[in-house]
């Protein structure tokens, strides 16, 4: 899949994010954290795996990293979602893609925006010779789990937690 240049619109509704998108990405990231924090597993996720606030600064820094990619999903050139992937170097020297963010506004789901973004992130991982791609789904997030399974993701580990 080829990403559109910023400002171009395609049927896939996905393009590379630019600095002009940062305010909207930060807004969507805040919504993602707010929606996920109350979910099962969300409190630890929001303080451990979620990108730290202020989101504007976190995503600005990510745009400048060569082994990461940030994309936005659009409908009629309006940003309705975003995704990010980072390349992690394993001890074996192999590359692993890690989808750190994938979010689409609720009213824009199930029309192909998320699919276009995950396809773009996966293509980035292929270009960087990754041996695989990890993505996190919180327990109980059935729609998220189904989305990833629909794109050939399978569970490779379960993280067990006991609150104290």
Relevant CATH superfamily: Gcn5-related N-acetyltransferase (GNAT)
What string, H for helix and E for strand, traces the elements in order?
Answer: EHHHEEEHEH
Q: What integer is the average pLDDT?
A: 91
Q: Please tell me the total number of domains.
A: 1
Shape: globular
Strand content: 15-25%
Main sheet attributes: strand count, strand direction, barrel closure: 5 strands, mixed
The oligomeric status of these chains comes to single chain
Main structural class: alpha+beta
**Order of strands across the biggest sheet?**
1-2-3-4-5
Rg from alpha-carbon coordinates: 15 Å
CATH architecture: 3-Layer(aba) Sandwich
Helix content bin: 25-40%
CATH level 3 topology: Aminopeptidase
Low-confidence stretches: none
Through-space gap between termini = 46 Å
How many E strands? 5
Characterise the protein shown here.
- The chain has 5 helices and 5 strands.
- By secondary structure, the chain is α+β, with helices and mostly antiparallel strands.
- It has one domain: Gcn5-related N-acetyltransferase (GNAT) (Aminopeptidase).
- Helix 1 (22-37) crosses helix 3.
- It has helices at 22-37, 42-48, 55-63, 113-127, 142-149, and strands at residues 14-16, 68-75, 78-89, 95-104, 130-135.
Concise description?
This protein is an alpha+beta fold. It is 34% helix and 24% strand. The protein has a five-stranded mixed β-sheet, sandwiched between helices.
Helix and strand arrangement:
Blueprint: E1 14-16, H1 22-37, H2 42-48, H3 55-63, E2 68-75, E3 78-89, E4 95-104, H4 113-127, E5 130-135, H5 142-149
Parallel strand pairs: 4-5
Antiparallel strand pairs: 1-2, 2-3, 3-4
Helix pairs in contact: 1-3
